[in-house]
Structure formats: structure tokens, C-alpha cells
TrEMBL record:
Keywords: 2Fe-2S, Iron, Iron-sulfur, Metal-binding. Belongs to the complex I 24 kDa subunit family. This is NADH-quinone oxidoreductase subunit E 2. Its cofactor is [2Fe-2S] cluster. The keyword 4Fe-4S does not apply. It comes from Mesoterricola silvestris. The gene is nuoE2_2. CDD domains: TRX_Fd_NuoE. Pfam families: 2Fe-2S_thioredx (PF01257).
Length: 173
């Protein structure tokens, strides 16, 4: 039987709901898993989730649009968030910002054309004494310099090697 992309998505969401629960307390865990796997949460996914959890689709959309990490827009496999607080600003954030934009060829708020990297600003990461702070997916980097940006990006790029699996763990030195 031929399965469409939507059928596959709906099937995976049903599996997630079976595993994580089918009430509103499972909403964010399900959304996180969908975002992690598909790098976006589209209106169809929100409708399927709403139907499974017995809540209105507007509620699902409200949660997705409220939390920046769930934002419905498509993101790269590596989402790089640079802290934009005054503490990180005073410790060289703008140099790190320029280096990231130059190395990736995109501006903050954009995703590379190949869908591998997204640059975003973030509010305080709680690392004010170790700025500038950078978050790559779920991993924090502190005291980031333009030179460290090269190392961080190279570690990410190694994941995309010929035999690399999408879920391969990135090891930073």
C-alpha cells in the first residue's frame, strides 16, 4: 500500500500519542517530537494532534506560536541560537554574530538553502557570566569566540558526512 507523507505523519503522531498519552498534558511532548523529526509543525500536524487529544486546533496553534522553540516555521537540522542580552553583547556577541553569518552565508532569522542550519537570537540563557553564549539544538556553548564558531560549525557539518545518520550525536571538544 502506498503511503503519503500526510499518512505517515498522522501514523507517527498516533504512535506518539499512544506512547506519551492522549490528553492535553501530552501536547508539548508530542509537539516537541514532531518538531524534532520534521523541523516544522504544519497546520495538518496541528489538526491531527488536536483530534487525537480532543482539543481545539486553535489551542494547539496557540501553544506552537507562543513558544519560540516550537515555532511552526521550518528550521534547519541545527538551530543555532545566540544570546542577545546586554551581558553577551558586552562580551563580544556582535563578533560571534558576524562570524556565524559569514560562515553560513545567511542572516539571523534565516535557514540555509540546504536546510541544515538556522540562525536565531535567543533571550537570556542564564549564562551571563560566561558569555557570549550560544545554543546549538540542546547543547550550550559558552565564552564563544569567532574562532570557536569554526569548531562548532565543523562539528555540526561532520554529522552530514557520507555515512552519517540524521540522529547522530554531535560531539564538541
Amino acid at each position: 500500500m502506498l503511503m503519503t507523507e500526510r499518512d505517515r505523519l498522522a501514523s507517527e503522531i498516533r504512535s506518539l500519542a499512544a506512547k506519551l498519552g492522549q490528553d492535553r498534558t501530552s501536547l508539548i511532548p508530542i509537539l516537541l517530537e514532531v518538531k524534532r523529526k520534521y523541523h516544522t509543525i504544519d497546520s495538518y500536524a496541528m489538526q491531527v494532534i488536536a483530534d487525537l487529544l480532543g482539543i481545539h486546533p486553535v489551542e494547539v496553534n496557540s501553544v506552537v506560536s507562543f513558544y519560540a522553540f516550537l515555532g511552526g516555521h521550518r528550521q534547519g537540522k541545527f538551530v543555532i541560537r545566540l544570546c542577545r542580552t546586554i551581558s553577551c553583547d558586552m562580551q563580544g556577541k556582535s563578533r560571534v554574530e558576524r562570524q556565524l553569518e559569514n560562515d553560513l552565508g545567511i542572516r539571523f532569522g534565516e535557514t540555509t538553502p540546504d536546510g541544515k542550519f538556522t540562525l536565531e537570537f535567543a533571550n537570556c540563557m542564564g549564562m551571563c557570566d560566561q558569555g557570549p553564549a550560544l545554543l546549538v539544538n540542546d547543547r550550550i556553548h559558552t565564552r564563544v569566540t569567532p574562532e570557536k564558531v569554526h569548531e562548532i560549525l565543523e562539528a555540526c557539518r561532520r554529522v552530514f558526512g557520507v555515512h552519517a545518520a540524521e540522529t547522530k550525536e554531535v560531539v564538541f571538544k
